[in-house]
Structure formats: structure tokens, C-alpha cells
């Protein structure tokens, strides 16, 4: 198993290299960039985000020499444009910038944000707890509900319980999380009905003055609506996955043999079926967590004014803040690869018969 872990860790290096390389190449051909953003702000200080990131005649990475290469740069001193390119690092060839980025990222040195005047690593450290909080609570809540419900639906397949719970699950799957979030705000956050939960932030302004119990209560009070909004779709998916997995196992020959030996239904279900059926559910955990952490949290963070990685990444992309964009991509990819490795190790722990090392040999 140790050699398998070592191989998986070694494979992360070329995987991260490929992800960064493809993303870096795409950025070179993407319209707009930090130089154009500065030029746009100089020409029109009140311009909106759409104006700031408008297309250019050529990408920042390949623009050297003439100020007219940038839209709106006519009339500006070419020396000033050169200084901007040097400030953002675009005075060097693309391959040199990419190799320097790889060396810096190997040391977890992500540089400074172009427009926030702060180290990128510091920004990520500030935002990461918010996204991890949402991702973990959403995953735990959805699994805590969906696994027992999915098992019950499999045991009661075809019953009235299975029918009406399936209707609820399908509706939950069909409703987008951001739409459900708006509904929760309207109902419970002072939108039109009750003012029960807060609308923004993870803690109250007086959180530091609260007792330990008060801090826990205040924290749970703030995350209730965001977590519920995010868990809706994941709960539906996990429930159907659990039900189908248990149904597949229940119909196998070894279950019939266990029943013929006189084992109770509970003994068959939790003594034999559970371990095998849970493998596919465990396999879905990395996807659920990573999706909640990186993709599903974006709209929820925006709606509930939660300053996490999702919102940080979105703003960095809009503003062409490339150090933040690539650092988030690197962190996201690394966490995803590590979580998948942990999932494989969990497979072996749940079912010792699974030996990844012998499969790869």
C-alpha cells in the first residue's frame, strides 16, 4: 500500500503540470488582461466590470512594443505601457513566465495579487475557512440524510413510502441551489415573511464578545440557510445513489444465501449488504465535497455575502487577476487529487478485499 501511495503522489506532479500548462496557454489567447484593465480605468474611471475586461486586439502576454496593441491605449505614452507590462510581468516571454510560475508554485509562493495589494497565499488563507465550512457541513448534512433515506427506500421499494419520498427527491434535484437560496431568504431572512435567520456573514458583529456556547449558537445560526441551500441537490443525488447501490446488492446471490441460513433481515442488511453497497457511495464523496467547495459555493457565497474562495475566484477571473486565478486553480486541483487518494484508501479500509497495489502491478 505504501508503494501505491507513493506512485499516486508522484502522479500528482505531472497532473498538476498539465492542468497549469493548459490553463496558462488558454490565458495567452484570452481577450483582455490586467494591462487593459488599468488602461480602461484610466480612460473611464467609472467603467463597470464588463468594460474593464473587454476584448483586445491581442492578449497581454503577446503584446510588446506598441501602445496601440491595447484597445483604448491610443494617446498614452508607449513608455507607460511598457512600464505596465513590466509591472505585471508581461515583459518576459511566455515560456520564461511559465517556468518561473512552476518554480514558485513548488514552494507555494503565489506572488501578490495584481489589484488587491496583498500576497495571494494570504488571501487564500483568509477565504479558505469559509468555503471549507460550507463544503463540509453541506456534505455531512446531505450524507446524514441521504444514506438512511436511501437504505429505507431500497428496503421499501415500490411502497407508498418509496413513491412519495421519490417525488420529494426529484423535486429537490430539479430545483437549482441558488433559486432555493432565494426562496429561503424570502421566507426566513426577512424577505417577505419571517426574520429568523441573518442574511449575511458567518458570524455576528459581537461574536468575539460571546461565550463559547454563544459563539457556537451564533455560528450555526448563520450557516443554516447557506448549508440548506447547498445540500438540496447533493442530498437528492446521494439518496438515489444509495438506493440503487443497495438494490443492486440486495438482489445478489450471497444475500439469498444469507437469508437461507436464517439470518434476520437486519443482519443481512447491515452485516453483508451495507459494506458492499457503501463502496459506490464513498466513491461519490470526493466529487460531492469538491463540487461544494469550489463550484457549488460560488452563487451561495454571493447570495449570502460570504467571502469565500468561490467569490474570490469569480472576482479574480472578472478582473483578470492572474496570480489569484492560477493560485486558486493550483490549490483546487491539489485538494481534489489528495481527496481522491484519500477515497481510494477509504475503499481499502471499508473492504480489505480491494487491493489497488496488486491491480496496478
Task: List the keywords.
single chain, 361 residues, mainly alpha, MetI-like fold, 2 domains, 16 helices
How many separate domains? 2
Task: Please tally the β strands and state the result.
Answer: 0
Identify the CATH homologous superfamily of the largest domain.
Answer: MetI-like
- What does the average pLDDT come to? 77
- Principal-axes geometry comes out as globular
| Spatial extent as radius of gyration | 26 Å
Sequence stretches where pLDDT stays below 50 over 5 or more residues? 48-68
The computed structural class is mainly alpha
The major sheet is characterized as: none
Share in helix? over 70%
H and E order = HHHHHHHHHHHHHHHH
Summarize the structure in words.
With 361 residues, the protein is an all-alpha fold. The protein folds into two domains: 16-107, no CATH class; 121-360, MetI-like fold (Orthogonal Bundle). The protein is built from 16 helices and no strands. Mean pLDDT is 77; it is low at 48-68.
Brief write-up:
With 361 residues, this protein is mainly α.
List the topology elements.
Elements: H1 2-29, H2 34-43, H3 49-52, H4 78-87, H5 94-106, H6 120-155, H7 160-174, H8 177-188, H9 212-250, H10 253-260, H11 265-283, H12 285-295, H13 297-303, H14 309-318, H15 322-350, H16 356-360
Amino acid at each position: 500500500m505504501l508503494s501505491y501511495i507513493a506512485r499516486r503522489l508522484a502522479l500528482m506532479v505531472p497532473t498538476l503540470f498539465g492542468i497549469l500548462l493548459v490553463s496558462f496557454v488558454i490565458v495567452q489567447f484570452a481577450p483582455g488582461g490586467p494591462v487593459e484593465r488599468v488602461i480602461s480605468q484610466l480612460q473611464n474611471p467609472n467603467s463597470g466590470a464588463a468594460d474593464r475586461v473587454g476584448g483586445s486586439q491581442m492578449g497581454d502576454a503577446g503584446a510588446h512594443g506598441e501602445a496601440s496593441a491595447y484597445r483604448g491605449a491610443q494617446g498614452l505614452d508607449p513608455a507607460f505601457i511598457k512600464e505596465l507590462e513590466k509591472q505585471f510581468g508581461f515583459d518576459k516571454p511566455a515560456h520564461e513566465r511559465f517556468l518561473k510560475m512552476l518554480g514558485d508554485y513548488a514552494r507555494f509562493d503565489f506572488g501578490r495579487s495584481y489589484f488587491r495589494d496583498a500576497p495571494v497565499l494570504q488571501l487564500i488563507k483568509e477565504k479558505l475557512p469559509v468555503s471549507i465550512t460550507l463544503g463540509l457541513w453541506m456534505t455531512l448534512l446531505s450524507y446524514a440524510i441521504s444514506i438512511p433515506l436511501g437504505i429505507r427506500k431500497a428496503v421499501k421499494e415500490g411502497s407508498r413510502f418509496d413513491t412519495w419520498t421519490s417525488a420529494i427527491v426529484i423535486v429537490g434535484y430539479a430545483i437549482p441551489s441558488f433559486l432555493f437560496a432565494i426562496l429561503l431568504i424570502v421566507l426566513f431572512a426577512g424577505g417577505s415573511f419571517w426574520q429568523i435567520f441573518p442574511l449575511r456573514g458567518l458570524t455576528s458583529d459581537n461574536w468575539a464578545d460571546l461565550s463559547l456556547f454563544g459563539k457556537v449558537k451564533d455560528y450555526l445560526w448563520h450557516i443554516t440557510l447557506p448549508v440548506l441551500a447547498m445540500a438540496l441537490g447533493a442530498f437528492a443525488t446521494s439518496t438515489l445513489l444509495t438506493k440503487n447501490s443497495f438494490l443492486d446488492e440486495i438482489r445478489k446471490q450471497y444475500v439469498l444465501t444469507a437469508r437461507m441460513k436464517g439470518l434476520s433481515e437486519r443482519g443481512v442488511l447491515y452485516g453483508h449488504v451495507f459494506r458492499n453497497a457503501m463502496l459506490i457511495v464513498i466513491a461519490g464523496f470526493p466529487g460531492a465535497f469538491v463540487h461544494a467547495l469550489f463550484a457549488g459555493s460560488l452563487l451561495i457565497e454571493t447570495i449570502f455575502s460570504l467571502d469565500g474562495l468561490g467569490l474570490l475566484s469569480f472576482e479574480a477571473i472578472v478582473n483578470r487577476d492572474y496570480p489569484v486565478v492560477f493560485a486558486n486553480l493550483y490549490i483546487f486541483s491539489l485538494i481534489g487529487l489528495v481527496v481522491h487518494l484519500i477515497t481510494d484508501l477509504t475503499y481499502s479500509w471499508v473492504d480489505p478485499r480491494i487491493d489497488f497495489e496488486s491491480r496496478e502491478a
